Structure formats: C-alpha cells, structure tokens
Amino acid sequence: MMVTPLGAVVRGLIAGTVGTVAMDTLLYAEYRRGGGKSGVRRWEFSEDIKTWDDAPAPAQVGRRLFEGMFRHELPNSRAALVNNLTHWAFGILNGAAYGVVVGSVPKARIWYGVPFAATVWGTGYVVLPAAGLYSPIWDYSIKVLAKDLTAHLVYGLTTATAYKVLGSRDD
Length: 171
Fold this sequence. Notes:
Helices cover 67% and strands 0% of the residues. By secondary structure, it is mostly helical.
C-alpha cells in the first residue's frame, strides 16, 4: 500500500533524523578511537569551532546560504551553531527526499538505503568542490573516501530501516 505524500515526508523526516544520529554515533566512535578527547556533547555541538577558519564544510555551506539570502555577515561566534544546524538539516531533509521517493513505490525495502547513501555521499563530492569547499574527489585517498562512504552507508541504511519500521503496517 502506498503512503500519502505527507505521510512519506513525515516518515522521511523522522527516518532522516534517526539516520543522522546513527551516522554521528559512528563518527564520534571513530573520533574517539583516533585519539579524540572531547566528550560527546562537546563534539556533537562543535564546541571547539571558534572561527569560520576552523569550520568544516557544513558550516561553510550554511554560512554562504545565510549570508547570501539575508545579506548579513555572520560573526565567528556563530560558526559552531551553523555547522550543527546545516549538518542536521541536511541529514533530516535528505530523509524527507528519501521518503518521497520510496513512498512512491509499492513497498519500502531496506536495501534502498544503499543507493540513497551513495547518492548523498557522491553529491557532496560534486557540489562541495564546485563551491570551493572540498578538493575534487580524486585528491582524496581511498582510505578517506571509504571512511566517508561507510558513514554515509550507516546513515542511508539506518534511514531506510527507520522508514520501513515507521510504516511497517503499510508495507
């Protein structure tokens, strides 16, 4: 049974949130295994980001969007907040897009999370270099790309699983 468009979006938003939590859990575990010392709260809320020069790609994307739309320069003190808002919004909103696509097929399948994850991952390596925020994909080592793809696979498969579980009576 197909889900309504609104139902697909809501399920996708919730599933994208669960997927983002799963991805962040993996990334935090890798950070700690790599010698990171910050606690989960400090790490999750990017409390070590103090300036735009310290800020990773999500913060830079959010900054460009905000400053472009509102014609107002964001101070350094907003870098951590913008990083978190952009990261979470991207994960949650991609979940909504997943919900719309998967809600259009007769039955949700967990394996749909694999091409979804690969698409989200690959899009970053197209859009972010074009925006001048990443190097081209060929400049990254296989190890870096594999680590990033693995995190996105966790996101995609968790999002797909959550989406299916949320609608298990419909599917």
